[in-house]
Design a protein that fits this description.
Shape: elongated
Largest sheet: 2 strands, antiparallel
Structural class: mainly alpha
Strand order of the largest sheet: 1-2
């Protein structure tokens, strides 16, 4: 009856998002894609009806993000990258217009990290490094303005680790060591702050091990050996924690991914009214899969995802988790 009613359109978009999220969580990617396409179209209609409204502009970014998640799940990294780059372009634009908005910067950094990881997976290490270094700059600005924020610190730690791994693989040995050491400084402080946080302890083990291996490769044995020994102790402790956790393990998500749990979900944007359940974003993104770093914060049910492969006797194997994808080290 009134195709220009902003509230009704927003409600329609929310319905398609949530139905698409259900289909996505059940592995019905064709149905999810159809719903998310409609969701994106609604967001773009809202933009045309109310130009300059940053909420509708961000909804369009989330629409691209959701479609990127579907494409990546199908293994179509080329299409996923096109969608996430469209989302990044909008987030860069909004972040530049609102330089003091930490949530915009955080969303931009997360999307850059996701794009960097996909570029690395597709074999474009140089491109991945450039994107991840942009993410590092954005996170650095966030940390400068809010130095006590552990979410920003964790995001920086993971980003630095991914940068270091790529630098190592590109033969940039000294740069890799600098990045690993910067990662180690941050993740060590996080573990000091919360020694019971299994995710952070796992990250510390991985960083100590990989830095130690890099130092050994360069012949810096005296510095390397204590790091590797510390990593082995951390892994033994985490394995014991994992064995205890199996008695109260939480269910896994579809396709075997650990369910996403946000430690401190942000208050939802009220621009679209009360037509849907609380969400991190106005429309959200599927299971927060698409745009945010996974923050498990010691949830026992996901610990096996973090430590899978640790029982191999020949070396420490652990997972740094980023955007529901894993890198075996």
């Amino acid at each position: 009856r009134d195709p220009t009613n902003l509230e009704w359109l927003a409600g329609l978009g929310a319905v398609h998002f949530w139905l698409g999220s259900i289909e996505y969580s059940q592995g019905n990617l064709d149905e999810a894609e159809s719903r998310f396409i409609t969701y994106l179209e609604v967001a773009q209609r809202l933009e045309k009806l109310e130009p300059g409204n940053p909420d509708w502009r961000m909804e369009t970014a989330y629409g691209f993000t959701n479609l990127a998640a579907v494409a990546e799940e199908r293994g179509d990294l080329g299409t996923a990258l096109e969608f996430i780059q469209s989302s990044i372009a909008i987030k860069r634009e909004l972040s530049a217009q609102n330089p003091d908005d930490a949530s915009l910067k955080s969303g931009l950094a997360n999307s850059l990290g996701w794009a960097g990881r996909m570029l690395e997976t597709s074999g474009d290490r140089a491109g991945a490094l450039a994107v991840l270094q942009e993410s590092e700059t954005v996170i650095g600005d966030l940390m400068a303005k809010d130095p006590g924020n552990s979410n920003h610190q964790e995001l920086m730690s993971v980003t630095l680790h991914l940068i270091a791994v790529i630098q190592r693989d590109l033969g940039q040995a000294e740069a890799a060591i600098r990045s690993f050491r910067a990662d180690l400084a941050i993740i060590s402080k996080l573990v000091e702050r919360d020694p019971e946080n299994a995710t952070w302890r796992g990250g510390l083990a991985v960083t100590k091990r990989t830095l130690g291996q890099q130092l050994l490769w360069l012949g810096m044995v005296e510095e390397a050996e204590p790091l590797i020994r510390d990593a082995e102790v951390l892994v033994r402790d985490l394995r014991q924690h994992l064995d205890r956790a199996r008695f109260c393990e939480r269910p896994k998500g579809v396709h075997g991914h650990a369910r996403r749990v946000d430690a401190k979900p942000e208050a939802r944007n009220e621009a679209l009214g009360g037509a849907r359940p609380p969400s991190r974003h106005p429309f959200g993104s599927p299971a927060q899969h698409a745009s945010d770093v996974v923050a498990l914060h010691g949830r026992d049910g996901a610990l096996e995802e973090l430590l899978i492969g640790l029982r191999r006797p020949d070396r420490i194997v652990a997972r740094r988790i980023l955007h529901h994808r894993h890198e075996l080290l």
